[in-house]
Amino acid sequence: MQEDFLHYIWKFQKYDFARAATTAGESVLIQDTGIHNELSGPDFFNSRLKIGEQLWAGNVEIHLKSSDWYLHRHESDESYDNVILHVVWEHDVEIYRADNSPIPTLELKNKVPLEVVEKYELLLSKKARWINCEDSFGKFERFETAHWLERLYFERLEAKSALVSRLLQKTENDWEAVLFQLLAKAFGLNINGESFLSIAQSFDFKIFRRNQGEILKLEAVLMGQAGFLEKECEDIYFQKLKEEYQYLQHKYKMSNAEVIKPKFFRLRPDNFPMIRLAQLAKVYAGTAFLLDRIMGAESIEDFYGIFQVELNAYWSCHYNFGKEHKPKKKRTTWAFIDLILINTIIPFQFAYFKHLGKPVETILELAEKVPAENNTIVAKFNLLKPAVALSSMESQALLQLKKNYCDLNKCLQCELGLKLLQQKTLQSP
């Protein structure tokens, strides 16, 4: 049993009210269960109770056992001084406030209907299931899943905006510099995301801003900071980049000592770091005022127009310096641009709109137009409930659901899990 289950019992009052009494024998009448607190501190704020003949207003703390109060050291934490009721499954010891006054305790073990406990145990029983509710997931109505997935999507955007906030602090609120760093991370994909981010952070973005429009200089900065121009190579294009980089490095006093070296292992040639860095340079060389264009884009086609670039003749014959192959157009694909929109542009817009105090709901329009990601988690959810993820909004929400709820057994914090517990029957797998 988890404390989440006791939170559910208290919040939705799934116990015998007629026998609600403290361990000292005083009756407990609940006027307001309080506000559920999911952060640090007491579990429910601003509860209103009548214990015996006395009305109380304060906080409620919930534990599996009374002794957990001391295990968690609440007796020495001032934030628990205003606890008016200790709700536990099993009462095994008396507890006291810092001033030695006893805290009334409500024991639930013999007051919760057996069917409520059985449904909880059935839902969370581990029987080689991918998610606890996989036998019931496909039976939820469309409006039920849609409502919860929208909430989960914004929850995921909030989490992703934390990186934006950290980068803003480091750049002294330079939104253009933050956009560049996030785009660099996105172009690096999973394998080289952190490496590309370290490259973007290794020099002042003003260097890119001053040389925007000059593709050779932008490529030279990125390739040089990545360490790709340190070797010896007779390739003419390589020599041009190296000469340009050495000039810019001396002029701007750039160092790449702390850059994480890009990897090639298990990458397909189209994702080689040279190609992705060259594409990033091409985006900036071909788009003036990139921040304004991104924030002003009105359709998904506008974004495709910004990020669909084709590399020059040299890169059409090379994946690496000095190694030539048959000509092949190297352009960013729509699928790659979709990943940029999902993982970078939409979270960036979310943070930017919040900063400006603009409504963030409009972001849903773009998220719903970007196709759903194709990965094993999304595919499995689509097997459980066909077409549950058609857009990136839904696929991102499902990733949030699996990682932060299903995998952690947080069924009682999930709208769908709560709905199953509210049903009269819960089908056994």
From TrEMBL:
* InterPro entries named in the record: DUF2851
Task: Identify the Pfam families for this entry.
Answer: DUF2851
**What name does this protein carry?**
DUF2851 family protein
Species assigned in the record: Autumnicola tepida
